[in-house]
């Protein structure tokens, strides 16, 4: 089979490797589509602290069961499925505390950018779903990123009537926008790309701001909130320390701040301790997701809350993966699709 192996920043090789065999409880999925995402772009350009090269990468895919291992009863050869890219152990300290995204024994599956991928038994048990009629492979492949947004919204809390600012109109930022809209919030979205801001309007944003030429983006955002006091909920979905700082400053007194975008390893940001204390801010970091929210995300996609039509741009063969990633990086599309 063909697989894209990552060797380091801007160093991808399409290689011929054996099709994997399933172990007990595992399945092999013949990928039909795989989607690019912001994490893939970050890995391509700068690496990723959780994974050391070389490795096959990509983590948003869907396809057809090629082979099932011993003991697998829920899935069989020929089934259309989507597999999430991780699963917790449910037995470590953090899992027992209900913090499964912090699991120390979590299994992470990389292999979306390959013709076949092995899905571990831990993921098969918890985070693989049958794709129903009417749901496309592209729609199903949105499950992983959407589950992260569903988890983030649940953790920070958005109520009807809230004013929410979302910094970043990439895939995750747009998913946050859609979820906040259905919770009855007024939504302000900032980004550097007009095309993505237009997509934010379609997702439900009532105010969009191109921050490229803004000298005071914090002040502009606050001017769009009641009495200029700031947002009830302020969300960062870019992954830059400077945006983390401005996102904190956009929140009202007593407001809630969600810092979701992962930054480069070793990054830091500053915060005024007086502001944090006397404004009684709640600042929360959220990483990844949990099986509860993977299930919720899959159900929401199945019910039509989001669609690949709004997120997926051009289609490429695996051999043009780098081209697909670079176009994604430029911001002219929300995601691109690798078609096998």
List keywords for this structure.
13 helices, 7-stranded mixed β-sheet, 6-stranded parallel β-sheet, globular, 2 domains, 340 residues
Would you give an account of this structure?
The protein has 2 domains: 2-142 and 306-339, Alpha-Beta Complex (Quinone Oxidoreductase, Chain A, domain 1); 151-285, NAD(P)-binding Rossmann-like Domain (Rossmann fold, 3-Layer(aba) Sandwich). It is built from 13 helices and 18 strands. It has helices spanning 38-46, 93-96, 121-126, 137-141, 143-156, 171-182, 194-203, 217-223, 241-249, 273-278, 291-302, 308-311, 321-330, and strands at residues 2-8, 11-16, 27-35, 55-56, 61-68, 80-83, 86-87, 107-108, 116-119, 128-130, 163-167, 186-191, 207-210, 231-236, 251-259, 282-285, 312-316, 335-339. The mean pLDDT is 96.
């Amino acid at each position: 089979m063909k697989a894209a192996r990552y060797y380091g920043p801007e160093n991808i090789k399409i290689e011929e490797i054996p099709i994997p065999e399933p172990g007990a409880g595992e399945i092999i999925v013949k990928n039909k589509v795989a989607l690019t995402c912001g994490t893939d772009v970050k890995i391509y350009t700068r690496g990723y602290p959780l994974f050391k090269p070389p490795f096959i990468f990509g983590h948003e895919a869907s396809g057809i069961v090629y082979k099932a291992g011993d003991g697998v009863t829920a899935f069989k050869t020929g089934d259309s499925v989507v597999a999430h890219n991780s699963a917790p152990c449910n037995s470590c300290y953090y899992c027992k505390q209900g913090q499964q995204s912090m699991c120390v024994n979590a299994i992470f599956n990389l292999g979306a950018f390959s013709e076949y991928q092995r899905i571990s038994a831990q993921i098969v048990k918890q985070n693989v779903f049958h794709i129903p009629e009417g749901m496309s492979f592209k729609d199903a492949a949105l499950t992983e990123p959407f589950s992260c947004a569903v988890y983030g919204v649940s953790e920070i809390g958005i109520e009807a009537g809230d004013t929410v600012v979302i910094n970043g109109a990439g895939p995750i930022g747009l998913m946050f926008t859609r979820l906040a809209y259905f919770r009855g919030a007024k939504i302000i979205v900032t980004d550097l790309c007009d095309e993505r801001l237009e997509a934010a309007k379609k997702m439900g944003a009532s105010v969009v701001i191109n921050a490229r030429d803004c000298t005071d983006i914090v002040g502009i955002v606050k001017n769009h909130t009641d009495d200029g006091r700031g947002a009830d909920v302020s969300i960062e979905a870019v992954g830059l320390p400077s945006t983390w700082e401005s996102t904190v400053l956009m929140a009202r007194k007593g407001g809630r701040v969600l810092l979701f975008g992962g930054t480069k390893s070793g990054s830091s940001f500053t915060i005024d301790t007086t502001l944090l204390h006397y404004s009684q801010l709640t600042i929360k970091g959220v990483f990844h997701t949990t099986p509860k929210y993977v299930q919720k995300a899959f159900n929401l996609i199945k019910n039509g809350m989001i669609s690949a039509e709004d997120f997926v741009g051009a289609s490429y063969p695996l051999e043009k993966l780098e081209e697909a990633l670079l176009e994604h990086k430029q911001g002219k599309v929300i995601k691109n699709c690798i078609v096998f």
